[in-house]
Amino acid sequence: MAYSAYTMRLQEKRLLIMSMSKLTRDNVDFPCWQIPIPEIATYLGIKGRDLHFRLKDICKSLLSRVAEVKRPEGGWKAFQFLSHCEYIPAKTNNGTAVLEIQLHPDMTPFLLELKDRFNSIEFDLLARLSSIYAVRLYEFLHHKRTESGSVTNSHLVKLMDLRKMLGLENKYLNFKDVRKYVLNVAQTQFKERTPLCFDFTEHRARKRGAPVVAIEFTLYDNFDYQCPNLPNINAQLMENMERKSREERKEQVYELFEKHLDKAIFMKMISRLEQKGERFEKITENLELAAFQIAKNPKQIKNVVAYCISAIKGNWARA
């Protein structure tokens, strides 16, 4: 899917991402998911009295979209993203209006591969990108980085291929507009909203002044990134934590890490600390200290992951 060519509006892409995020590695087929309308409206960023009309328009447009995937020896395959969408009113569904949605079966091999590469947090951050081109670039560059089985941070892409992938064959024909409205915007949004950043270099046909024929992307980790949509740590979530043992507190914090932390960024941060001479035991001590502080002040700690990351970076247990 990262290499497939298609044109899509941002809200259509967000609805597709929302559907894909429901998929688990245990799915052998694509069941019908019923998603509450308020949840969809929030995720897509739409509101107002015409919500249902706009959602219908988004669904019909998405149902008409076709992805094209290259095959060996010059072959190709084209398919739709969705099998169907159905709006079910609240009065016929126990008081809750939902959208029933099903992904197209032909997407199976591509989506199962995609699910292996993206965790739930990454599906969520894709929805926070407000440029459809930033979303597509994140999918593409995230895939390219680990395509070979090891991390590769430099990637040369022909401008013609990039245009096709982004649906820009007939848009922004002057490259300076691609630079301004696509690459620069994506670069800014990556840095502000994702764990991955990039720089890019323009490659020209011959010399300065000649047309741009390729873009070289240089990828690097955004160590300042923290997922903004982590849950509040309130008294109900931390119920009875004060009476738990130190080991139980540690395990509960680890459980929250497992559920909400971007693991790739965390492990790279740990690796960087270890390269600076930090002992892994000290990192564990900082997590345990953070768990103890969270247990003491469950109503005051609003973001357990950010709090624990600060404890590790600041080496709070050094005293």
Describe the fold and architecture:
The chain is an alpha+beta fold. The chain has three domains: 1-116, Orthogonal Bundle (Arc Repressor Mutant, subunit A); 129-225, Arc Repressor Mutant, subunit A (Orthogonal Bundle); 241-318. Helix content is 47%, strand content 16%. It contains twelve helices and eight strands. The protein has helices spanning 10-20, 37-44, 51-64, 108-117, 120-128, 132-146, 159-166, 175-193, 246-260, 263-275, 280-296, 304-314; strands spanning 33-36, 66-70, 76-80, 82-88, 98-103, 154-158, 196-204, 212-221. The strands form three sheets. The chain has a three-stranded antiparallel β-sheet with strand order 1-5-4. A three-stranded antiparallel β-sheet has the order 6-8-7. A two-stranded antiparallel sheet has the order 2-3. A hairpin with a 7-residue loop joins strand 7 and strand 8. Helix 1 (10-20) runs antiparallel to helix 5 and helix 9 (246-260) packs across helix 11 (280-296). Residues 229-237 have low confidence and may be disordered.
How much helicity do the residues have? 40-55%
Average of the residue pLDDT scores:
78
Rg calc: 22 Å
* Count of distinct strands: 8
Please count the helical segments. Answer: 12
How would you summarize this macromolecular structure in one to three sentences?
With 319 residues, the chain is of the alpha+beta class. The chain is 47% helix and 16% strand.
